[in-house]
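Following up on my earlier thread - several people asked me to post the actual chain instead of describing it. Fair enough. Here it is, all 291 residues.
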Amino acid sequence: MLCKICGANNSKVKYYLKKFNVVKCYACSTVFLDFKNKVMDPREVYSPNYYKERNEHYLKNIIIDPIHGPENPSIIDFREGLKLIESFKHPGRLLDVGCGMGIFLSMAKERGWDVFGVDISDYATGFARERFGINCFVGRLKNANFPDNYFDVIALWDVIEHFESPLEELEEVRRILADDGIIFFDTPNVESLMRLIAHWIYKVTGGLFKYPLKKLYHQFHLYYFSTKTLKMLLDKSGFEIIEMKKKTIPITKAKGNRLEKVIVRGLSILEKAAHREYELLVIAKKARVAR
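Reply from S.P.:
Thanks for posting it. Predicted structure:
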């Protein structure tokens, strides 16, 4: 199977799961999914049910419900993300690719940013427009036809791993980003401690016990990056990293029962101690010459 990141035909199955296999390119080390059946249309995947099933993450927070909503870990993440962005840029034009229901954009709007959103979900963008008055385009980024060098900041919260072709999407991001602009994003870290533990459980049991891997690899995330492969992807798409951090998973993103969430909390502490946190957070700018 050809790797869409480096173009090499040197990929092998790493894990055999029910709906898909997890594949690694041994030329560039990128990890990605190989579906056994036809991949669903993203518009079907990110239906209203996708958001309603993740009610705790999207709807139970202080931005949606200022009186009773909690300042949950996702909102704290957004506040810290805005703080980091504003340490590099003053408020200007900000685009959120994969904006979902517009919660991050509503927070940026309150701080003086001129905000825009892109998402393939009619349901999510409709909510963002009606609830927060955000200008949203429904569809893929390349079809939005934004002008060259238009945005000061482009945010991609938990979205690079969802792209069918991350390299092509980032090339479009580069085109519409101002020459002195920055991109901000986070994505799962394929070298996290949780994934390392799940890997060895799979290996020790001869591939029979797959449950931890099923929790960590799923149909919504098509690619999984390490610090090395993420830097390679950004280099190829014409960006250079200004800052890269590792961070633990917000518990609102953890799927499972109460016991599983307790386990995730405990492992997050160990991940931090081992410097193998669950997510990578990146600030990058245009390289002087696109590669």
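The radius of gyration is 19 Å. That should answer part of your original question.
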